[in-house]
Amino acid sequence: MIIRKILFVFSLLALIVASFSINAEPFKAGGALGTQTIDGYNALGPQVEQPIEFPHYIHAKIMKINCMYCHTYARRSAVSGIPRLDKCIGCHKMIPEVRDRPRIKKLFWYWDNHLSIPWKKVHDLPDFVRFNHERHIQRFYFQDKRPVREVCGYCHGDVANMTTARRVKAISMGWCIDCHKKDHQISAVNLKTTNGPHDCWMCHK
Amino acid sequence: MATEKKMGVDRRDFLKVLGISGAAATLAGCGNTSIESGAEKVQAYVQPEDFVVPGNSVFYASTCTQCPSHCGVMGRVREGRVLKLEGNPNSTISKGKICGLGQASVQIQYNPDRLTTPMVRNGDSLVPATWDQAMTVIKQGLGKDSVISGEEIVFLTGTTSGHQKVLINNFLNNFNSNNHIAYDALSNHVGETVRENVYGYSNPVQKIKDAKLIISFGNDFLGSGLSPVYMATQYAHFRKAPRGTLVQIEPRMTLTGGNADRWYPIRPGTEGIFALGLANALVQHPEYDKAIPDEVKQALQAYDKRTVGEITGINPDAITHLVGMMWERTPTLILSGATAEGQKQGYQNAYAIELLNVILGNVGKTITAPTENPFPQMNPTNATYQALVNLNEQLSAKKVKACLIMGVNPIYTEPTFVGIAKNLKQVPLKVAMVTQLDETAELCDVVLPLLSPVEDFGTYVAEYQPEGVEIGIQQPLMEKLHPHTKSFGDVLLTLLKERDPKNYSHYPDYYSYIREAVIKSKPVFKSSMTDDDFWDSTLMNGVLHIPVKESEIKEVKINIADLPKAEKAPADVNYPFYFVPSIKADLRDGRHANLPWLQESPDPMTTVVWDSWVEINPKTAEEMQIREGDVLEVQSSMGSVTAQAYLFPGIQPNTVSIPFGQGHTSYGRYATNRGVNPFKLINPITDEKTGELALFATKVQIKKTGDNKKIVKDEGPTTLQQGRKLVVTMAADKAELSKEV
Lengths: 205, 741
Fold this sequence. Notes:
Largest sheet of chain B: 7 strands, mixed
Distance between the termini of chain A: 48 Å
Shape of chain B: globular
Oligomer: heterodimer
Structural class of chain A: mainly alpha
CATH class of the domain at 123-182 and 375-457 and 480-520 in chain B: Alpha Beta
Shape of chain A: globular
Radius of gyration of chain B: 29 Å
């Protein structure tokens, strides 16, 4: 009888493990290099269809615009925010040669109707995680003087080579901790190294 | 049989299913499977102000409308949503502080049961309608061709002030009427009338901070009083060295009573007699000999210690002790409160209590005259119970053709003997303006959805003005959440524009009405700013403040006829218990029962949540063999309710109490069918002098129903140390110190 019970418990455990492996996304080495997650999740997110197929590669790669020119809140706030619509219009009013392109027409349609563009969120953390953009940008861009595409790319991947953004990093807790464990140079002049904080309350308030 | 076998699930199958779905459910909530791409929208502003940074909060000043103390508040706004309220440091009333009631006002805004479209009566039920449809119904009765006038129209509200009140009066004047009826179930009209008659001011400034000894007769100034946030800061100063002493005398312990140094339980309704007992003992002392006329002194002789002790149930030695304290610690302050005033002899009780202030020479020291408001038309209406009786008389005479109701729920708060529901039904046009459907709105023909307090403009003047006069400015903290809700002011302006286009058509909305009124008041504030700057700075500060103008209480009148008689109330065999319902600082008269934060916050004295309960003294409970959680039937001559017993040492042995606020039959998911409504037990006893309802004079009997249910409360077992030996004490002679160390 006891053996039956033990067998029953084991079969139940096996079931749980099996269902775990069924439900977890299988790992696909689809992300950029170095995005392998230590907790076994797929780094590559789904392709999200956006209301306007915004070409990051034209802005960041061809035009060489700094990420923070548009995502201006990243260095000032916990969230980087989507650029305000009048920011897009401010530049595009001055570029009449692309006004007839379908994407720009769409952009001006929103502007003329005074409507906000219903972008879909690509990097959406659970509500119990408080990620702070400002701290990361201040630390690595302003203090360490690392290139902006590299700093943003730690979490967002090489967006400059994408059209609309797609998640390429796991952004799981293990993945965050992995980076927080690494030795980071304190600043461009101070070559000593530190780790990121490991306190639970840093992110889970 | 075969089907049965097929349908049957044995334990193993059941667990298998549970195992898989359970594991799947666990997985859905952990790991990065909860990182979603493309599931939520993230939208930017089209053209925001330059200072707007997503993720960073902006603070806007406004005024709290949860109770008539109208504290100045600051709303924390992020991404266009108000998240939290704080006190406004510019406000002389709140001084940057806020209470739980104020905090919960954001839940009016986000309440899932908010009324989002107008409702119009169709037969027996209310059906959603458009604003055009609703206004058409209203305009049929109150449009430009309406001949309704005088007493045919009634505007029923709670306490209103500021431009809301001005607009209501203008609206009624347009119908040649002044039938603005202000009803408050928990009105403090008795005390106000007494103070008006004694000092000439209904709400003189009571300087708690300056007193060394406060004797409060049931005045819950820290909980459900007139201005609890202001009083709490004053009380904090009062408690700083040299520490003031607070004595509370009341039948059932309030939050203030819980904070007192001494708490005397008193037989309900005899507070005035105890006050006169103190007065009699005081005037024996040569220092207080000349304070009152000889005839009053003569009359006081009837209140000797022994008689007073017998009537009030307080040990006569307490009088000696308190008189000693009064003599030692000056200045003193004597306060009368709800339980002393809400009695058959309520006026006399309050009168006797104020007499103590006169004898002790507190007038001019701890009781001073308030500053006069240069805009008397904005002063708050004096909401009373008598107003409801008047309304009922008007309704039963069947003269009323239109009744507009805002900010008050008489169907819920009326005692059973008033019977306003039946009379109200006969009114041809009943319009309720609410944020959420309640018992009264359910009876109406048209229900209009109003903006929540954090979406609307307005001006408010508090009843209690301790430091100068403060006019609270209310402004929207965010855009309106539901597109089909409207400001109360806009509804009235729409109707006024139709009837009086000459005077009102130039106001596009309520905002412009208030803006113009505030700018017109500029000379009073001696401001040299431009109109626009003055308006902007007013919005930014959240308050307009008129500084303290010292004036004196000129004359104190004492009338010997207004003192309570030293008579013992006859015992009632059928209804042996006094019924003293408690006023909770959060739910008040039940208007806030729809806010889950307040339902969830434990009652400060008993820690019970989400329910009603009957407080009974442990000694009485022992005699009647009542245990905690026993379901009791509390019966008065007006009706009966059942609720669980809670054994509470802070209550007189012959008194029971049920808190006000619960027992709604319609007020959204959080309030409906929760607890019981003690208003329905109140006997038809009124204060003899003012006609106000004696809320605390009902007598009841209690019966055990035989059921017992667990009380939902935060408190652990009532035995000491939570039923566990947390701290073990031992008599010193029993301890063997060599082993203990």
